[in-house]
Amino acid sequence: MADATSVLHVSPVIPVVTIDDPQQAVPVARALADGGIRIIELTLRTDSALTSLKLIANEVPDILVGAGTILTPGQADAAVSAGAQFLVSPGVTPALLDHLLTLDVPVLPGVATVGEVMAVLESGLEAMKFFPAGPAGGPAYLAAIGAPIPHVQFCPTGGISLATAPDYLGLPNVSCVGGSWLAPRAAVETGDWQRITELARQASGLGA
Ligand code: 3PG
């Protein structure tokens, strides 16, 4: 088991990227890197996700690429085999958490309640994804969790934008946020890499 605290400090924003055509994978990753972002959460929501993951892991060494949308132990294993350097889940079940703990890559289990935070903490992990951040209560909710449980670091994701990211990043228990806004589906589909680089540049500026 590897704690994911270091993963939370790579960039102020982890782009949540969904790729349909594997030919888009490397250009998207390079466009994000050109904008100063050094990490990607690639969702396992498309048939070609594992192929895209492998391509980024092999061809874009300055990007740390992880797999998101991990729902089952089997998906976790497949993602690690494809080269995932960390794993992210939207939530956890006891079976999934047990399995994630057996892996050598850092994992960011998803949580949305205080009880879930405590369950993951019991397993020894202190870095978690807070999902879905906006609907679950936003910055005020995370600030409240930080009072009784100050040692857990979160990557809030879900409903966050460039405009609202600073509200989260200003919290002591938030090291980065996640969001799909850096790689909009339309920009990926039309190959608008410049737009993605510009969005990445704005997002990486949030850490300044
Ligand atoms: C995720 O998978 O983490 C979310 O779908 C990303 O949320 P967003 O699209 O609201 O940024």
Question: What can you tell me about this protein's structure?
Answer:
- This protein is α/β, with parallel strands linked by helices and 208 residues long.
- It has a single domain, classed as Aldolase class I (TIM Barrel).
- The chain contains ten helices and nine strands.
- α1 packs across α10.
- The longest helix has 12 residues.
- The mean pLDDT is 95.
- It binds 3-phosphoglyceric acid (3PG).
- The site of 3-phosphoglyceric acid (3PG) has 12 residues, from β9.
Poorly predicted regions:
none
Strand content: 15-25%
Gross CATH architecture = Alpha-Beta Barrel
Strand order of the largest sheet: 3-2-1-9
Total strands: the figure is: 9
Helix content: 25-40%
Total separate domains: 1
Q: Which of globular, elongated, flat, extended, rod-shaped describes the shape?
A: globular
Order of helices and strands: EHEHEHEHEEHEHHEHEHH
Question: Helices and strands: which structural class?
Answer: alpha/beta
> Per CATH, what is the topology?
TIM Barrel
Q: Distance between termini?
A: 31 Å
Quaternary status: single chain
Biggest β-sheet description: 4 strands, parallel
